[in-house]
Amino acid sequence: MESEKIYGNLPTLETERLILRKVTLNDVEDMYDYGSNGEVTKYVTWETHKTLSDSKGFVDFVLNQYENGKVAPWGIEYKETGKFIGTIDFVSWQVNHHVAEIGYVISPDYWGMGITTEAANEIIKFGFDNMDLVRIQARCFVENRGSERVMEKIGMSFEGIIRKGMFVKGKHQDLKMYSILKEEFSSLQNLKIEDTSSL
Questions:
Q1: How many degrees, rounded to 5, is the angle at CA 87 between CA 86 and CA 92?
Q2: Bridge-partner residues for 166, per DSSP?
Q3: E-assigned strands of the chain?
Q4: What confidence tens digit (pLDDT) does each residue in 95-109 have?
Q5: Residues of the chain whose pLDDT is less than 50?
């Protein structure tokens, strides 16, 4: 499967509280709200946004990715307010190996609410159902306990620490690696259905 088939016309996905959809120029100010927060950018690969033009530059990049059918993020919109609160995406997709990696960032106003877990579950489901994936992985800096908790809550297994696995912001970072396989995710989904039907 080629990325153009997915990203040339990125589908809108919906969960109980969220709409996952294309990022637009209307999202620049909301992106700047969280992208300019040093607590948010502490554990990501990109620098803190210093001006609105930094956020607009990223949105322009994303729009270009859509235009060219290349891997690009979904925007996370909170249904209750219609506010753009973050992004989630497959940061890499090894088509021939049927493997992809997810990444995410969310406004601190929505931390601790299970929002990222909800979005990640939907993206993982999409990846296994529509992208012919057999494995989805995620990595985080070893200090990033919040991201690690998301990986655990969506059913990923800890595989180990990649020592000095990434050079970012002037230093080598140790990374924790998590993953989930298609059959594991299917089993978890079936358990949820069984739990719901027994209520």
A1: 155
A2: 173
A3: 13-14, 18-22, 74-78, 83-94, 99-106, 135-141, 157-168, 171-181
A4: 999 999 999 999 999
A5: none
